[in-house]
Specification:
Chain A: It is an enzyme of class 1 (oxidoreductase). Chain A: GO terms for molecular function: phenylacetyl-CoA 1,2-epoxidase activity. Chain A: It comes from Massilia horti. The complex is a heterodimer of chains A (94) and B (250). Chain A is of the alpha+beta class and 94 residues long. Helix content of chain A is 19%, strand content 21%. Chain A has a domain of 55 residues: Phenylacetic acid degradation B (Ubiquitin-like (UB roll)). A 3-stranded antiparallel beta sheet of chain A has the order 2-1-3, covered by helices on one side. The longest helix of chain A has 13 residues. Chain B is mainly alpha-helical and 250 residues long. In chain B, helix 1 runs antiparallel to helix 2 and helix 4 packs antiparallel against helix 5. The longest helix of chain B has 29 residues. Chain B is globular, with a radius of gyration of 18 Å. The two termini of chain B are 31 Å apart. Classes of the chains: A alpha+beta (94), B mainly alpha (250). At the A-B interface, helix 1 of A face helix 2 and helix 5 of B.
C-alpha cells in the first residue's frame, strides 16, 4: 500500500480564501488521482476552489530544535515591525 | 403529460438504482479513497433522483412524492435501463458499468440542459457538474486498469464484453422517447449514440481495450418495466422498511 499508494499532503484554497491551507493528507498512486481524491475527501467539490497536492516525501520541515533560532521574533527592535502605518480599510487582508 | 411523467421516471429510476448499487460498496472499496469516491457518486445520483422523482410526482398530481415513487413501486413499474441493475461483481465490473453509464449520462444531461421544459433544463444544469466529474473519474480509471497489468486488463475486457449488450437500450427510442424529442424536451437518439460510441472508442483506445461491435445484439425492456431478475432483489432490500411500516414519517 505505502509503496504503490504513497502519502500526499493536500492544500486547498477555498472559494473566498486568499491562500492555500493545509487540510490533511491522503494516499493515491499518482498526482492526478490524488487531486481527484482530494476533491472527494476534502472539498465536496465546492466551486471556485484550487487544490494543491504534494507528495509528502517532497516536504522538508523545520526541526523543533530550531524553534528559537528560527522563530524568536525581534521584539526589542520595534523598527522591524510595520506598526506605524495606518492601514486603509480596503486592504485589511494584506 | 403522461409521457413526460414516464420520461421523468426513467431518469429518476436510472440514478436511483445505480446509487443503491454503489452504496453496497460502502466500506468494501479497494482503497479508502475509492470508497469515498463511490459513495460520493452514489450521493450525487441520489440527489438527482430526488429532483427527477419529485417533478414526476408533481406532474402526476395524485399525491405520490419522491418517497412514494421510490419505495412503493415494484419492479414492473420501475423504468430504469437494464445496465444499472447489473450486479456490482468485481471492481472491474462496477467500474465498467459506471463508465458506460457515465458516458451516456453525460451526453444526455448535457443535451437536457437545452430542454424545452424549463424544470428539466434546470435539473440537468444542476446535474451537469456532477456527471462531468463522474465521467472524468470513470474514464481515468478505465484507462488505468485497462492499460494496467495483464490481470487488470483481462478483467476490464471481460467486464466490457459482459456489459456491452446492455449499452444499446438507451438509444432504442420508443413512443415516449420520440414524443419527448418532438416536443424538444429530450435530445435525439442518433446524436447521443454517436457521441457515446466516439467517447467509448477513444477511452478504450487509450486503455488498450477492444470495443465490442456497435451492431451487436442489444438487450432491452428496462424502460418499459421488463427487467432482469436482479431488480426484484434490489428493491426488496431497498423498500423493506417502507413496506413493513407504510406511511410513517422518518
Amino acid at each position: 500500500m505505502s509503496k504503490e499508494w504513497p502519502l500526499w499532503e493536500v492544500f486547498i484554497r477555498s472559494q473566498h480564501g486568499l491562500a492555500h491551507k493545509h487540510v490533511g493528507s491522503l494516499h493515491a498512486p499518482d498526482a492526478e488521482m490524488a487531486i481527484n481524491n482530494a476533491r472527494d475527501v476534502y472539498t465536496r467539490r465546492n466551486e471556485g476552489v484550487s487544490i494543491w497536492v504534494v507528495r509528502a516525501s517532497d516536504i522538508v520541515a523545520s526541526s523543533p530544535f530550531d524553534k528559537e533560532a528560527l522563530f524568536e521574533p525581534s521584539n526589542s527592535k520595534v523598527y522591524r515591525h510595520p506598526t506605524f502605518f495606518p492601514i486603509p480599510e480596503e486592504v485589511k487582508n494584506l | 403529460m403522461n409521457q413526460k411523467f414516464e420520461y421523468l421516471l426513467r431518469q429518476g429510476d436510472n440514478a436511483l438504482i445505480l446509487a443503491q448499487q454503489l452504496c453496497q460498496w460502502c466500506g468494501k472499496g479497494p482503497a479508502l479513497e475509492e470508497d469515498m469516491a463511490l459513495s460520493n457518486i452514489a450521493l450525487d445520483l441520489l440527489g438527482q433522483t430526488r429532483m427527477w422523482l419529485a417533478y414526476a410526482g408533481e406532474l402526476e398530481g395524485s399525491g405520490r412524492d419522491e418517497d412514494k415513487l421510490a419505495f412503493l413501486r415494484d419492479a414492473g413499474q420501475y423504468r430504469n435501463c437494464l445496465l444499472v441493475e447489473q450486479p456490482n461483481g468485481d471492481y472491474a465490473q462496477t467500474l465498467m458499468r459506471q463508465f458506460f453509464f457515465d458516458t451516456w449520462h453525460y451526453f444526455l444531461i448535457e443535451g437536457l440542459t437545452r430542454s424545452s421544459d424549463a424544470r428539466i433544463a434546470e435539473i440537468a444544469e444542476k446535474s451537469l457538474k456532477e456527471v462531468t466529474y463522474h465521467l472524468r473519474r470513470s474514464s481515468d480509471l478505465v484507462v488505468r486498469l485497462g492499460d494496467g497489468t495483464g490481470v487488470s486488463h483481462a478483467k476490464m475486457q471481460a467486464a466490457a464484453d459482459e456489459l456491452w449488450t446492455y449499452t444499446g437500450e438507451m438509444f432504442i427510442y420508443d413512443d415516449i422517447d420520440v414524443a419527448m424529442v418532438e416536443q424538444g424536451v429530450a435530445p435525439a437518439a442518433n446524436t447521443l449514440r454517436e457521441a457515446f460510441l466516439r467517447a467509448v472508442a477513444e477511452v478504450f483506445g487509450e486503455a488498450t481495450l477492444t470495443m465490442p461491435s456497435p451492431d451487436a445484439y442489444m438487450q432491452r425492456g428496462g424502460k418499459q418495466g421488463r427487467h432482469t431478475e436482479r431488480l426484484g432483489y434490489i428493491l426488496a432490500e431497498m423498500q423493506f422498511l417502507q413496506r413493513a411500516y407504510p406511511g410513517v414519517e422518518w
